[in-house]
Amino acid sequence: MELILDRVSVARGGVPVLAEVSLRLAPGRALVLRGPNGIGKTTLLRTIAGLQPPVAGTIAGAEERVAYAGHADGIKPTLTVAENLAFWASVFGTEGIGAALAAYQLEVLGWRMAGTLSAGQKRRLGLARLLVTGRPVWVLDEPTVSLDAEAVGWFAGAVRTHLAAGGSALMATHIDLGIEAEVLELSGHRAVLPALDDFDGAFA
Ligand SMILES: Nc1ncnc2c1ncn2[C@@H]1O[C@H](COP(=O)(O)OP(=O)(O)OP(=O)(O)O)[C@@H](O)[C@H]1O
């Protein structure tokens, strides 16, 4: 099943951000969102993840199929690394956290309270979480932030494995992961703000 956006417009804090974004993401494929800071990549990804509704347009193939990794990693600080993954596995009804621990070399940190991890270690845990969701569509917002070069390689490997298994990935990233991906440039979709055409009149 494809993820399909048809003329989707999104707003942040009530302000229109992006207008009429259409895309299709097929199983096994990756798509990278590009655009300058503030254009609305995070807002669009949050909308696809179901965290906020679109202002206009339709999204198909996302419901119950998306695993989202955003800036806040969704980590429970008072649970250990292993407990965090086991918690998410139970939430998503999957079993086994071994592969997720191994993919990001988290075995040695399994007993550590997640709140005590470094930024990069937290990000590795947040990305490992995707693997226990069992969800086919990964929606990733700047997934490599805080990762060192080696961990970026682990992430790229995890995405490749996910795509090879028929999953898909939609991500906002500024770095080249060496993964074959289509690119959607969002600069041409900047929402036009309503004109303040009666600005002076407001002071009359
Ligand atoms: N919580 C918020 N409330 C109101 N406006 C916000 C909020 N968060 C972001 N914005 C604004 O919404 C617009 C889109 O922001 P968004 O984070 O989606 O952009 P982005 O393309 O992901 O940016 P970046 O590349 O810097 O991460 C920006 O103008 C931003 O200032």
UniProtKB/TrEMBL annotation:
A Gene Ontology molecular function term of the record: ATP binding
Cell membrane in keyword set: no
Record-annotated ABC transporter domain positions: 3-204
SMART domains from the UniProt entry: AAA
Source organism, top-level taxon: Bacteria
InterPro entries: AAA+_ATPase, ABC_transporter-like_ATP-bd, ABC_transporter-like_CS, ABC_transptr_haem_export_CcmA, P-loop_NTPase
Keywords: ATP-binding, Cytochrome c-type biogenesis, Membrane, Nucleotide-binding, Translocase, Transport
Keyword Translocase recorded: yes
Any single Pfam family the record assigns to this protein: ABC_tran
Name this protein carries in UniProt: Heme ABC exporter ATP-binding protein CcmA
